[in-house]
Amino acid sequence: MSENMILMDIMRASPVIPVIAIDDIAHAVPLARALVAGGIRVLEITLRTAHGLAAIRAVASQVPDAIVGVGTLTRPDEFVAARDAGAVFGVSPGLTQGLVDAARKSGLPLLPGTMTPSEVMAARDAGFRQLKLFPAVPAGGIGMLNALAGPLGDVMFCPTGGISQETAPKFLACANVACVGGSWLTPKDALKAGDWGRITSLAKAASGLRG
Ligand code: 3PG
Predict the structure, then answer these.
(1) Average pLDDT of the segment spanning 110-129
(2) What is the full DSSP assignment across the chain?
(3) Residues identified as active-site
(4) What is the distance in A from the centroid of ligand 1 to the CA of 138?
(5) Which CATH fold topology does 3-207 show?
(6) Ligand 1 — pocket residues by CB below 6 A?
(7) Chain segment 132-156, per-residue pLDDT in tens
(8) Which residue has the least CA distance to atom 7 on ligand 1?
(9) What pLDDT score does 211 carry?
């Protein structure tokens, strides 16, 4: 499945995928530029605010070095809209048959959320080899990832949810972790203040996590 190779390249391109929620559309492009300036090129712009699609469109067209994905995909009809806006991959908090079908039909590579061994197995049966572990810390964190690596060692994870700059190295050291996701690179107060320098500093620290 070529989508798996695309996702693996995307996950290897960045140790951290920032989970972005845009409350003010004017923030989208300067935020993306600040992250890219700090070495973080893979961006997950979520559909959890009304500006999600517009933000994807703006960043995809105006920040050529960004690799833009769509996050918080929860409904099948969002796939084509996000792809047409410029997203090159998608992330969902879980997986339904409707999302599997939408991913196939749209051709948008999907990183689906899983939380239990059965969910990992169902996602793998559906053809997905790169998975999000969500919410990572409530799901068991490092202990869960290590436990999954034995019986289900042929999938790679992007754990997301509850991870920080301080805890990310331990996650990244797991054999079955390709990258981590998190919102710590985009603190709401920094966005509100337009403090793009702070965002770039956070991105620089995060991009250095893989040596
Ligand atoms: C989310 O859904 O917002 C992501 O899982 C990010 O989680 P975090 O805020 O704990 O990094």
Answers:
(1) 98
(2) -HHHHHHHHHHHH-SEEEEE--SSGGGHHHHHHHHHHTT--EEEEESSSTTHHHHHHHHHHH-TT-EEEEE---STTHHHHHHHHT-SEEE-SS--HHHHHHHHHH---EE-EE-SHHHHHHHHHTT--EEEETTTTTTTHHHHHHHHHTTTTT-EEEEBSS--TTTHHHHHTSTTBS-EEESTTS-HHHHHHT-HHHHHHHHHHHHGGG-
(3) 44, 132
(4) 11
(5) TIM Barrel (3.20.20)
(6) 19, 135, 160-163, 182-184
(7) 999 999 999 999 999 999 999 999 9
(8) 161
(9) 65
